[in-house]
Design goal:
Elements (H helix, E strand, L loop, with lengths): L13 E5 L3 H10 L5 E11 L2 E11 L10 H13 L14 H18 L7 H4 L9 H5 L6
Parallel strand pairs: 1-2
Antiparallel strand pairs: 2-3
C-alpha cells in the first residue's frame, strides 16, 4: 500500500479531509496512528434538499481549517459521473455485474493518469511512472509479461 507514498510520521503527518461519514473515521483509525494524521471533516447542513451551511471540524491532529475541503474529490467524482455513464445518478445505463464497474473505473483511471495530458504532461509522467503521453492504441496493444 505504501510503495509510492512514504509512511506518515508524527513529524510529517498526512492531511485528510472527508465528509461526515463515520466509516471514514473508522477506516483511517485502522490504517494510521492518530499522531500521524491531520484529519478534518466537512459537514454540510441541508434543509428541504437545499444547502444551508457548511462547517469544518478538526477530528485529529492540527489540520488548517481552510485546508479542510472535499472539493477536489467531489470534482473528481463529478468527472467520473460525466465520463462513465454507469456511474451517473439516476441513469438508464446500469451494469449488472461489479466486474464491469471495476473494468470501467480501471479504464478511466488509466486514461486520467496516462492519456489525459494537462499542459503536455500527465499524472503518470509527473510521478515518474512513464516518460510520455500514451495513446489509446499504445494502451490497447500493450503486452504485459507475467
Amino acid at each position: 500500500m505504501f510503495e509510492r507514498l512514504p509512511l506518515p510520521e508524527p513529524s510529517a503527518p498526512i492531511a485528510v479531509a472527508t465528509d461526515g461519514n463515520a466509516q471514514y473515521r473508522d477506516g483511517l483509525a485502522k490504517v494510521y496512528c492518530e499522531p500521524c494524521i491531520d484529519y478534518g471533516c466537512v459537514v454540510k447542513q441541508r434543509k428541504e434538499n437545499r444547502l444551508v451551511g457548511v462547517s469544518r471540524e478538526i477530528i485529529w491532529g492540527n489540520p488548517l481549517p481552510e485546508a479542510i475541503s472535499t472539493s477536489i474529490v467531489e470534482g473528481f467524482n463529478n468527472k467520473i459521473r460525466q465520463r462513465i455513464s454507469r456511474f451517473g445518478r439516476k441513469t438508464a445505463s446500469f451494469t449488472k455485474k461489479i466486474t464491469a464497474y471495476i473494468g470501467a473505473l480501471n479504464m478511466f483511471q488509466f486514461m486520467s493518469n496516462f492519456i489525459d495530458a494537462k499542459k503536455s504532461t500527465t499524472s503518470a509522467m509527473r510521478e515518474g511512472v512513464t516518460d510520455h503521453v500514451w495513446t489509446w492504441g499504445e494502451f490497447l496493444n500493450y503486452s504485459i509479461q507475467l
